[in-house]
Amino acid sequence: MRYFLVVGEPSGDVHASKLMQALLEVDSAASFQYIGGEAMRSVAPTCLRDAKELAIMGFVEVLTHLRTISRNLAQCVDSIEAWKPDVVILVDFSGFNLKVAEYCHVHGYKVAYYILPKVWAWGAGRLKKMRRDIDWFYAILPFEVEYFRKNGIEVNYLGNPLLDELPQCSEIQPDADFRRQHDLDSRPIVALLPGSRPQELASIFERMCQLANEFPSYQFVVAGTSAIPAETYQKALARYPEVKLVTNITHQLLLHAQTAIVTSGTATLETALLGIPQVVVYRGNPLSIWIARRLAKVRRISLVNLILNRDAVKELIQEDFNLSTLRAEWQKLLPASPDREKMLNDYAELQRLVGEAGCAKRIASDLYTKLTAKTKAL
């Protein structure tokens, strides 16, 4: 089978690479073309374009890059038309990928959507097009099944991909070795996760680092990513020499951390599944946030709180994300605090709801079964 995948962010790149590996296990003749990143290239070299070139987030940012987005879309659908895949697999990145789905529907290509658009947060206006344009739906959040069913769409929840990507016990590096390798001392570690989007880094990074000046008995360490140039971090950290930086080892850093401060996104769920108490933060373009607050149909933004349907972790958004509130909320998570213990108990319930590892393999098997059934029917 021919599989064409479209990814727009680093997290999607990782999830898609696991799915590609699983597809190769069930379909020995699988071939791939894709817009993706480094993780996907490690599975198949046939990358048509790097996903980083597509990543434009935020209402205002999108409006100011409409011409670029239109050009990217044209190049994507031209590639689909030239290769004529058996299925187009769209991974997250809904603003772009729903337009790809519409093209595929019009031109007769089967579409599987993995990591579904968050229409439960932004209203149901896109549901009609989703029903029309997408053939197979794969959710990664357990509550999405009921939401979509109520809106006439049957979706599969076969687990969350993060469970396939988190390190196992045998992969955890001993604490002393980890600290020695990364030039860290014996102080308790506070992991800072500022995200992987360059346009968000400037507004979030400094507010995280400010806390380090007030608590010298703790070691603040930034989880960097190669998706952001090293010089960007170096410039930002010039004012905070006491803050350390490690790159592309976020999970290992979290496992050695006592607490974490995490930018809203996939990382909030990763942090929870690894059992690290956290404060969730976010700050973006003021106009984009203003628009989002008026459009959003949910009052929570972290995946942890959304899945549990309650405020298990504290969310500091926009003007609430300042040094005073961050200090107060972070201190509640230190050892022997009742807030810390309550959060860890909530994490245990979260683990039960999310389920077990093996999501990519289950989705690959289900999708291949559907594709071969379609081929036999023809």
The strand count comes to 13
What class, by secondary structure content?
alpha/beta
> What is the global morphology?
globular
Low-confidence stretches: 58-65
Integer-rounded radius of gyration: 21 Å
Rounded mean pLDDT is 89
Our measurement of the CA-to-CA distance between the termini, rounded to an integer number of angstroms, reads 15 Å
Percent strand equals 15-25%
Strand order of the largest sheet: 3-2-1-4-5-6-7
Specify the helix fraction band.
40-55%
Total count of helical runs of at least 4 residues: 19
Biggest beta-sheet profile: 7 strands, parallel
Care to give the gist of this entry?
By secondary structure, the protein is of the alpha/beta class. It has helices at residues 10-26, 38-41, 59-63, 66-83, 94-106, 119-122, 127-133, 144-150, 162-165, 175-181, 198-214, 230-237, 250-255, 266-273, 286-295, 303-308, 323-331, 338-354, 359-377; strands spanning 2-7, 31-36, 47-50, 87-91, 111-114, 136-139, 156-157, 189-193, 219-224, 244-247, 259-263, 278-282, 314-317.
How does this model look, in words?
The chain has 378 residues and is α/β, with parallel strands linked by helices. Helices cover 49% and strands 16% of the residues. The protein contains 19 helices and 13 strands. The strands form 2 sheets. The protein has a 7-stranded parallel beta sheet, with helices on both faces. It has a 6-stranded parallel beta sheet with strand order 10-9-8-11-12-13, sandwiched between helices. Strand 6, helix 8 (144-150) and strand 7 form a beta-alpha-beta unit. Helix 1 (10-26) packs across helix 19 (359-377). The longest helix is centred in the C-terminal third of the chain and has 19 residues, at 359-377. The radius of gyration is 21 Å and the shape is globular. The model is unreliable at 58-65 (pLDDT under 50).
